[in-house]
Hints:
This protein is mainly alpha-helical. It has helices at 5-18, 23-36, 44-56, 68-87, 93-112, 116-124. The chain is flat, with a radius of gyration of 22 Å. It starts with a helix and ends with a helix.
Amino acid sequence: MRLTKQEKLDLLDIMENVLPIGQVEWEQVEREFNDMHPKRPRLVTDIRRFFNDAHKKKVPTGDPNIPEWVRRAKEVHRGAILKSDAAGTDGDEDDDVDDLAEQSAVARAAQRNDGPRDAIARNKN
Length: 125
């Protein structure tokens, strides 16, 4: 079942507020959309498919006739990317360096046929 123009716009209103980047947020979008349109409920997979198709839609440069739902889907996608970038930055680069050192030690141990615990213990000494 295809989305009507109004359903597309309602869905994008919800998505602008939620900016889904994880399963929990996609399920929130599904709940809010289905509360708004109980006679035509949609699954998360259907909503994600619509969104992915909409934001990936190719539009000629400078085309003034881009459908509103495509333009808004592209804006929501940019917002979700910014949100996920911000969520991934915790400001603690020292942990990242420690993680890389530990991964490197495990890789060296694998080459020597040591166990990973031996490699991590050697790396901390």
